[in-house]
Amino acid sequence: MLCALALITAAPMAGARDQVLAVGSSTVYPFATVVAEHIGKTTDFKTPQVEAWGSGGGIKFFCRGVGVGEADIALASREMVASELQQCQENGVSDILGLRFGWDGIILATAGKGPHLRLTLKDLFLALGRRIPDPNGEEQLVPNPYKSWKETNPTLPDVPIQVYGPPVTSGTRDVLVERGLIRGCKSFDWLSALSQSDPERFRQVCGAIREDGAYTSTGENDNLIVRKVGESDQAVGIFGFSYYDQNRDKLQASEIEGIEPTFDTIYSRDYPLARPLYIYVKAAHADSIPGLEPFLSELMDERASGEEGYLIDRGLIPVPAPERKANAEKIRELVEKRQ
Length: 339
Known about the structure:
single chain; 339 residues; ten-stranded mixed beta sheet; 14 strands
């Protein structure tokens, strides 16, 4: 459950900072940036500073400590894990508000002139897994030998597996592994059995992405992936729905398990690679950083992230109305608690 995640409140900060600092997910970055610009234009507060470090990198920075030199908000395209929460608490970041503010889908896109892929999760694992089941049928793992999509599945196009995707610090990559590769890996009965008998070994096997050049990490720059795919007639790019939504004129999205990624299929969770988006707020900064409460309130306001909000035009999929209302109430309570 998303709520204040600890009971201890950090000591007040010394010094001052007059600008909100939010760091993290490149998927959440464009939404937070639009809201930050709105704050800068419509209020007396400075435009919040928003930086794309990836979910993992942003959370790590967020958890460094409390004070004017530390981030106020972590943007994440996945939920914080236990080890990250522990790191936060060890560094005195012990009162955190976590909010799920939207939904997104991980897209595998090709150029408009490129091949249209209709993939299963099994195809995804066989194309991107570092080690896969022996193609000869033996129940053993071998380094991924596949060079083309057709080799993974005869129904797919005979084009090279050339994928541009996020780095290890990215929440998009984490979810791609969790909801894509690992589920595809379980399509092999003997590996599915391994998930029960030796979960750690199973994750090592099924969660590793190949490093032989078929998958290229481009850093925390989804616009770069969009450009590389748009300039190619064969490459596949992996990024959030909003980047695809803003570039439909030059991209096409692959089907996953027979389902196209659309606003409706992500909102309904029918699309297999749908995932929630989060922000994490340092409660100790709520009464110390000018503009933090207006920024949070605007981000969660109906006119921004509601069903008719301006972020919807940017590709955000909203959370249900009761959750939006609860988010706004949690922000109000956070501010009142710190006054």
